[in-house]
Design brief:
The protein has one domain. It has 2 helices and 6 strands, in the order βββαβββα. The N and C termini lie far apart (about 35 Å). Strands 1, 2, 3, 4, 5 and 6 form a 6-stranded antiparallel sheet that branches. The longest helix has 10 residues. The model has no long low-confidence stretch (mean pLDDT about 80). With about 110 residues, it is α+β, with helices and mostly antiparallel strands. It holds the Pfam family DUF6303. InterPro entries: DUF6303.
Length: about 110
């Protein structure tokens, strides 16, 4: 019996290529291997180091998701280049939609999420 494809969060940083764009960190949801959601969380260009785990968890929650398994080891890191010559550093991890239980626990803790 096959299982449905796991939804993942993709965190990436793209350095400027030949286009002159400013690099930056972006977190997106990937419903499948070949699809990225247009909804994203983007950090300001001055954030050059990878966002911390808590910053990633907060960004995921603002998009309505939570990690399936926590901890730094749950994020798989890769690096490479895009076709335009831009350098990319990417991490991904399995995610799930936030549940009513997650939201009530956040509310009880006084954690505001969008």
């Amino acid at each position: 019996m096959s299982s449905p494809e796991q939804v993942r969060a993709v965190l990436d940083w793209t350095a400027p290529g030949t286009g002159g764009d400013v690099g930056g960190w972006c977190l997106r949801i990937a419903p499948s291997v070949r699809e990225l959601s247009p909804v994203s969380f983007v950090w300001p260009p001055h954030v050059t180091f990878p966002p911390t785990l808590m910053e990633r968890y907060d960004a995921l929650a603002s998009l309505g998701f939570a990690v399936v398994e926590g901890g730094a080891g749950a994020w798989e890191w890769h690096e490479g280049t895009w076709e335009d010559g831009s350098v990319v550093l990417m991490a991904y991890t399995a995610v799930r939609p936030l549940t009513a239980h997650d939201l009530s626990a956040q509310e009880a803790a006084g954690v505001p999420y969008a």
